[in-house]
## 1
Amino acid sequence: MGIGSNLPLIDGQRLWDSLMESGRIGPGKAGGLRRVALSDADGEMRDLYGRWCEEAGLSVTVDAMGSMFARRAGREDDLPPVLIGSHLDTQVAGGKYDGILGVLGGLEILRTLNDRGIETRRPIEVVNWTNEEGARFNPPMVASGVFAGVFERDWALAREDDDGAVFGEELKRLGYAGEAPVGGREVDCYFELHIEQDDALERLGIPLGIVTGGYAARGFNIRFEGETAHTGPTPMAKRRNALAAAARVLAAVDDIGWKYAPEGKATAARCIAWPNRLGILSEWAEIIIDFRHPDPAVTAKMVEEGMAALEAAAEKTRVDYEIIQRWSFGDENFSEDLIGLVRGAATALDVPTHDMFSQAGHDAYYMSRITPTCLLFSPCRDGITHNEAEEIELAYTEPSVNVLLHAVLARADR
Amino acid sequence: MGIGSNLPLIDGQRLWDSLMESGRIGPGKAGGLRRVALSDADGEMRDLYGRWCEEAGLSVTVDAMGSMFARRAGREDDLPPVLIGSHLDTQVAGGKYDGILGVLGGLEILRTLNDRGIETRRPIEVVNWTNEEGARFNPPMVASGVFAGVFERDWALAREDDDGAVFGEELKRLGYAGEAPVGGREVDCYFELHIEQDDALERLGIPLGIVTGGYAARGFNIRFEGETAHTGPTPMAKRRNALAAAARVLAAVDDIGWKYAPEGKATAARCIAWPNRLGILSEWAEIIIDFRHPDPAVTAKMVEEGMAALEAAAEKTRVDYEIIQRWSFGDENFSEDLIGLVRGAATALDVPTHDMFSQAGHDAYYMSRITPTCLLFSPCRDGITHNEAEEIELAYTEPSVNVLLHAVLARADR
């Protein structure tokens, strides 16, 4: 930012210290985090975040999906709040910044307003959305999805992990089955700051990405039903090996990804089967696949090819299939108004910005369906994320949080 | 058998009752059995089998791999014993007869000799081999394999199941970590009666199959090492998705099976991956594949194509791989001498026989490497096995056990 600027700025070291303290809760095996939603580690982090919020004089409300809203009152406190947020949960082998920066950056903004004694017209809330990653409970972004009316609350609370643990029960176990209704209240707008998850900003040497659109992403959870039989004697033509059907689809999906590369991506994300054993053909298998492209029309073509491969695999292997879940994101529009405020704040602070598309799902996607929404990126090293080696540097992160601070301030005083 | 024959015959009803009693231990979900090796159910069945053997006056010895040998003394008891056997463990969704018929049929033969007061020159032993199926502990046929010197005992005892339970510890837990050395003693010969696991005998209306050779089977356990990364932003060319590599190989294996059908078979048997989750590329995956053909030269060609597919998949996905286990069976030669005795007994009893190849692995394969071995099949309904719907009928089973009785008698008096 410009030398001699007298605009309020965050305390970068305090933000970094909070990130480091968070980075010790739920350690992975290689320096990162394994803090999947509603694990003991997630509970511990929630407790710490709640204490921090209370120490900052914020009032914390937990909704029935476990999302935590830390509120700083406005002068006109009945006005709908400006909401800032992201998520504190991680992948099973995740990093210390993904999502976490968005929540702790929001907290740092409110701490800064406290330090400076700055009042705002509107209240400001910082939210920690439950289970953004979907690493333990499928689907991802489920709590913001319920908030935005995309998913039914009771359906979401009934989701089970691989061991049969139930989302709603795990919330209760950790003391985060809150009483506040999920959504159903007016929100003035939603800001989310997230690490980029690619290396464009780092390559350009620009500390702030403004997301102007998303990759159109379409995902499918598919179940195959075949039949067990003895591997040795059962001829190919009599087999109904669900694992073979699953593998054929996963391989075809990878091929489709390559066909539409470099812009397009298609992912063999998950495969489980039963009995999944030597000597016996598998009775059932389940897979998760997805297709992503910046142009929704191309994504639709990829999906069409994927569905044809699914049909062909099922026929070849004599296996039945059912698409048990479809999901979609990336077509959402972000708010030109909010983006304008961000551009203004960046100019005032002399922070260069870069317009870009988001390639991953974020809570901001669902929120954009119900309120003006702005998604911002800050750089991450080598674009490595969802990996324990994920790294950021404070010097390239601090400017993005300061821009967010001023965009939020402008909106909260509107 | 011929009317008026005065040859000793088994008590078919007693055999059937024993099979039915066994069929209640470790019930599956659809009328069959889930009695995987060294489970509580396997322990219960072992206890029952041990009691039955003792009630029949047999002395039971358990070796360090947990295999149970029930011995009926011979007149010249120092001579190497005639061994009959198979296994009492099942697949996770298995039937009530596979393997079990071979053990309980052997016991019925000794009960019959007792009833008739028939002494034999050589001792006769009936063996229940531990973990033939390999459904819980990989590899299959591991205890007969150690007995035959194919696997190292300590390596086998250190095998772990998916939950980390150790073979040797599970043996101790159930009280079947025996003190007898594994193998290292002379065995006169080995007979194994097994259900066919295909429908050839049923279609032909013939109650006894004489196995004259095996399908050459080659199996591979392969581990892929890739790298986690975020699904959304990571372009295809930068991915190292271990699950995509695994799926490509499994799909190629299925293709190879079809290419060499109907005689050839290739199987996508197993796939596990980690994290195996939406939103993150998988760091590692493990698969089991196998190739089977009656002509070893063709099996070799199938393997060659499989290895080329493995190479191509690893290159395309930028994933490393390691073949962590190779296994092979089906090239073994069965004993012409023993087959001659079986043909003689079948003629005397007027039981039609059919020469055939075995398509599945059996303990007899490994035993054939160290002693004259004979593998016999009896019919199973519709060829359905490794499935809870597996069925046999006593009327089509009894003749095969009677032929075995007389072949064993002839050999034991040799």
## 2
Amino acid sequence: MSSSLGKLFAITVFGESHGRCVGVVIDGCPAGLPLDVADIQPDLGRRRAGAGVASTTRREKDRVEVFSGVLESFTTGAPICLLIMNKNVDDSAYEALKSRLRPGQADFTARTKYGGFNDWRGGGIFSGRMTAAFVMAGAVARKILKTIGVEVFAHTVAIGGIEARALPYEDAKKKALKDPLACADSAASAKMNALIEKVKKEGDSLGGVIEGVALNVPVGLGEPIFDSLDGNLAKALVDIPAVKGVEFGAGFAAARLKGSENNDPFTVEKGKVITKSNNSGGILGGISNGMPLVVRVAFKPTASIAREQATVDIEKMKDTKIKVSGRHDVCIVPRAVPVVESMMAVTLCDFAMRAGLIPRVLK
Amino acid sequence: MSSSLGKLFAITVFGESHGRCVGVVIDGCPAGLPLDVADIQPDLGRRRAGAGVASTTRREKDRVEVFSGVLESFTTGAPICLLIMNKNVDDSAYEALKSRLRPGQADFTARTKYGGFNDWRGGGIFSGRMTAAFVMAGAVARKILKTIGVEVFAHTVAIGGIEARALPYEDAKKKALKDPLACADSAASAKMNALIEKVKKEGDSLGGVIEGVALNVPVGLGEPIFDSLDGNLAKALVDIPAVKGVEFGAGFAAARLKGSENNDPFTVEKGKVITKSNNSGGILGGISNGMPLVVRVAFKPTASIAREQATVDIEKMKDTKIKVSGRHDVCIVPRAVPVVESMMAVTLCDFAMRAGLIPRVLK
Amino acid sequence: MSSSLGKLFAITVFGESHGRCVGVVIDGCPAGLPLDVADIQPDLGRRRAGAGVASTTRREKDRVEVFSGVLESFTTGAPICLLIMNKNVDDSAYEALKSRLRPGQADFTARTKYGGFNDWRGGGIFSGRMTAAFVMAGAVARKILKTIGVEVFAHTVAIGGIEARALPYEDAKKKALKDPLACADSAASAKMNALIEKVKKEGDSLGGVIEGVALNVPVGLGEPIFDSLDGNLAKALVDIPAVKGVEFGAGFAAARLKGSENNDPFTVEKGKVITKSNNSGGILGGISNGMPLVVRVAFKPTASIAREQATVDIEKMKDTKIKVSGRHDVCIVPRAVPVVESMMAVTLCDFAMRAGLIPRVLK
Amino acid sequence: MSSSLGKLFAITVFGESHGRCVGVVIDGCPAGLPLDVADIQPDLGRRRAGAGVASTTRREKDRVEVFSGVLESFTTGAPICLLIMNKNVDDSAYEALKSRLRPGQADFTARTKYGGFNDWRGGGIFSGRMTAAFVMAGAVARKILKTIGVEVFAHTVAIGGIEARALPYEDAKKKALKDPLACADSAASAKMNALIEKVKKEGDSLGGVIEGVALNVPVGLGEPIFDSLDGNLAKALVDIPAVKGVEFGAGFAAARLKGSENNDPFTVEKGKVITKSNNSGGILGGISNGMPLVVRVAFKPTASIAREQATVDIEKMKDTKIKVSGRHDVCIVPRAVPVVESMMAVTLCDFAMRAGLIPRVLK
């Protein structure tokens, strides 16, 4: 089904930006996992409008509620339904624009596909708001992964062309958590921040790049041919709204290297086989090799901008102009950091279960 | 199942590089499609070692045989099994290397995952040779897509950092078909060729970038959330061995643009809604918008190189050296062009069927 | 995922008997279907405790709420989430029994599988109460099927060994709807009723058989080999709690007939090919043949009975006795009639979509 | 995809009755399983025309060939393709009947569904011959199950209304293996045999019932709601051509019992919880309870009979007569015994893998 992802650890998403709720059903979570809203709420907080200038001035109060699958703060093995009830949704801004297609949004494609019956308010199911469901599922997946030592984190590595300096992963993780733009390089973060302020005044928007990292991934996750770990990660990440590209390890840069430069030499260290470099991003032949799993995800700039744009009035089938007012992020990248983590975690959790690494009952 | 891809038009792949065969089962092909080996053989020819210097000096005689699903040159509606019997497979080069892990290959991950039972000869199921199965399925998918006017083609846009000049798609398609490196820009192709010759002498290898394009894609392919068209294309393309990145439309470059630059303005042309630019690559909200669907795929340089590399003898668990002799491509990019086309076609065909655009019986 | 069913029209179920809610996510519903709680509530009413003696004395007030996928009373094409909030759930009866395994229930298997973390209150997700989710999905599926003229209904054909007389389907449908036991043969219904009263006094319970019928099914639903229409119906029906058998057309009786008796002769009537008899139950080779689709489903007697039974105290691992008090149906068969209809409708709807018979937008 | 079954242990079937081959791709088989054609050939022998009068006089020489997934007699973890090449297929008998619909066969439904492009020779993919693919997969599944002590067997319990006496399972298993009709009760077998001889002379056919049993099934196989063990077994068994019904444990008879009769009391025996009776057939709440898993499957009489039947000439759209000559079984039940075993084994193997009971590498 099209709103489901995963095989053993699988999630089903529903809801709308301006409808009643955003929700997720998590299927295949082992029984016995301690689970509370407090495990999920912080990630939703990171996804929510932050304190930084980058983010929308809305204050969505996203409070997760557990609707099924948890009894006395432990998972039961039954599907877990998590829900956020939408509050104070204001359709007026969208009502005025209803017949004018917002460039860069799903207005045109959804309207055509669904004969105009689609929920047009704020993009409906095509809204970035749906990623709150991803984050709820991701928080559960990360808690499961922790039981086998796998850790997933992400951080902002570029905004509007300003690139962050690379840091050791442990460092990057800690620093990014404290940075308002989720960027580990504070000098770059300051520049990004200045650019965001400038672009905000112009009524424009910015995109950027997030790097996701998974540490302590066991060797052997991924199945041959069509259940490669990278193929499934690519799908899960590109399914995030606004993502336009994904690359693993050296990625597009690898296409410019020679084999002798790109190949990661193997060596034995402390009785384990590792590679001296990590151009592969931790995946060889579609299977994890035990090195840090590294993926970079390109986000396009926010489509909703205050500047006037050329577009079409779909009811009159005539060219017209549009200014998308409302409370929009200049750059959604910092808010998307926990979303990237979540899609990585959901995918890794499914593959770890398929590899038989996670027991059906956790104790 | 891990060796299957697709929902209504679905393929299952099996076989090995140095085993008995490479095969594919195609499920969900409409009945009544005229189908002959002659429809498939040319694409296999393009995938096979070419005449150019880029390619392996092997001459794999890949002859497709129809094992099921076709009667009197028409598809029957039953699963179509297509098979290539491997010939003259020579294991001796691999036998000598058996315990030494080839850098950049699946030797280490497959061996660990399968406890050493994996077919190590030429990579077994992790070999690039498996893409012959993709190409057989892709030829069928493209023939189906043609019945609704959709055309898929791909071409080399970069090798070893040398980039081809952009050309109009119709032009690019024709020129790429005639170029030994499947590159539409003949000046760039000449440079690429020179570089390949040079690198070949060094015993080294090159990667590159392929652009895939689908024309006349109807508006509306793609399903919400987890069956986005781009998410599924990303998965299908990253499942190709050696792929390290994928991007749609402006892709990673979009992350450096402002919203006002990246958004594609809508306009009405000849009674249809189109966009004036195509930074989206033909996909909005995970759904095709009728513009050319454009994707770029990064291939790492061939992992098997003649130069000496540091590695590990996995049986002795000791560092050692390896020189991978044998007949290997300096650059597999030109041969991967029909593979990219095939994975795009298989994915598009599945989504076109899900959108109800392809009848179950073709007449 | 294990709580999902279907490919194009797919449902995901969650919730618990004594938890917060019972819910379903319906994926793949075409856009433009008029949908209101009033379309669903009546079927829930039929599933709820009836007026007859057969049923529990509980009065579950099952009110469906639409949480997503519907805008201004039309489906949007996005996943539809329907929810019933549980009310006045009383755990006390279950608390007392917690460590004693109820014979015929999932207590032992669920407890073992989930290490005791399963929701033991009223069976949790293994409760018959979960079928309220099936019925919500079924109501939507039946409304879709009506757009192509397909009608699904079910009726009680046996309770406790008392069998109803066969009637023409149109007749049976109308009479069953009015009968408190959903039995079209009023004489048999009276006898069943008397038996139920008698068995109720004994603190015992009864099972029975439901016949499901689908009329005007187009020829051609069902796919070869593993997506046979009957195979998928069998799965969907056996997934209903308490079902122990399923048969199509002549079913088990066919195993006693000769080929010349069981084969349905073809004939031409009004320009259409039909069969003179319908021992096949409307399915040949796993594909619908246009005749009424007929399936019979065996329900075991209610497992929860007031009489004393031998069992095990799982915490003490000792034999003991149990009397399951609480409000239980003597015979759940009449309440299961809309459940059988629902699982048939959900399955038929999926196959009709796969056959391309239902447009993605209904107008 | 419609020709695939299973999630972790999954099979894909292809081929035709009178085409080039019958084949199966087995995905998810653990690496390190010793596997040889000698493991599969005996089951194919049992499925092939037997020595008894019941069976076709054809002598299909079904020789299995391994096309992938096995290296030096051990499975590699890659998909296993097993193939039987068809030999001496004689289409002449079918050619003559081509436009006349054989009652009880898929001729009409397949022809309608596929617009006449279906392979009509011997039923094509709808032929009982396809079950040879099931048996090849089943042989592999049973070998895997043996590693965790699970044993699957089936036997004929009724033919043409003659029922076999119940025997202890160990007894039944041994005796059935030696009986030409795979019936453990030799007195009943003799009567069945006599009936078959009589009906053969009449040019007619017989159906029957097969009981499938799985011993030593661990507690806990099966997932909640839509991946119940019984639901999936029902699907897999009804997917066998000619099956019209399936029941678990007491099955349809349970519908006539009272709760106090049907409930299986729990007791502790040798430190384990068991049930004193087994009306549940080893499944409670869709999950195995450790008791013998018992299922009965109803087969209709062979549809192809030598007697004249009324039918339709589909090209002339006129009523006509048909006599199906050719080499057909009077009763396919004895040959279907390994097919029932196979579908049970394939399903159990998938669920055992999902429960994490089978390692990915067998040593």
